[in-house]
Amino acid sequence: MLELQSYGNLASALDINDLGVVVGFYSLGSAINVNPVRWVNEEVEILVDEVGFATAINNLGSIAGYMRFTEAFILDTELHRLGRYSRGAAINDLNNQGVGVGSLSSGNPVIWTTSGYESLSSPTYKAEPIAINDHGWVTGYSDLGAILWRNGLAEIILPNVDPDSKFSARDINNRGQIVGYGSGPNDFAFLWEGGEVYRPGDRLIPEDSHFTITSIEGINENGQMIGLATSPLTGEIGFMLNPVPEPTGFLLLVGGWACLIRKPA
What we know:
Elements: E1 10-16, E2 22-27, E3 34-40, E4 43-46, E5 52-57, E6 63-67, E7 71-75, E8 79-84, E9 89-94, E10 100-104, E11 108-113, E12 116-119, E13 127-132, E14 138-142, E15 145-150, E16 153-159, E17 167-172, E18 178-182, E19 190-193, E20 196-198, H1 200-203, E21 212-219, E22 225-231, E23 235-244, E24 249-254, E25 257-262
Antiparallel strand pairs: 1-2, 2-3, 3-4, 5-6, 6-7, 7-8, 9-10, 10-11, 11-12, 13-14, 14-15, 15-16, 17-18, 18-19, 19-20, 21-22, 22-23, 23-24, 24-25
């Protein structure tokens, strides 16, 4: 494990690109005075000397985030300040075309570019975009369940099933695979692909493994999934599911242990 330089008592990494450059925020001592930063080779660099957060970085090195929860920004060869909005502005992800997704006023979904924002369709309900792929597909959560925007249209890919249910899509890759989880007592971690919803925790984890997948937070272009699992032996712990070509299945890496899990036919 590499420790990222923080110089202070509060630091958090929020995103990493394929080159290993990390972005997030850190503080020189106060929990309310944090700066958006970038770590390269473990060394920290302040991006904007204002209170804020760097939330996303793409493979070209462009960075997105927001200051004081009211002003979104994109930093490429220069800093693009995208306007102040008194009721809030956020960018949650940035693709390799430099297009970001986020919200205005918490619940009004938008696409961000260096020119400003454009509203995403969200008929009659609040929604929050969380991730965007390089094809412009956007996913996130809404009052009705996990949501996907493609070709300008919004669709609920996994509806909330009861008043306590809240499904949220957390990531999407360029193959259109979407992962996420629900926070209700009857909800589950999921993989969405081609219109079908799968429960990796049921299909891929043997009952005698003692692990239960509670959330899936990310998926990359190789189909590797990361998230949280629980076990009566270890409590909550991070995991990674690695697809393997032969036999068709996944390699579960969790808590320093690895096991090969064959996918059901």
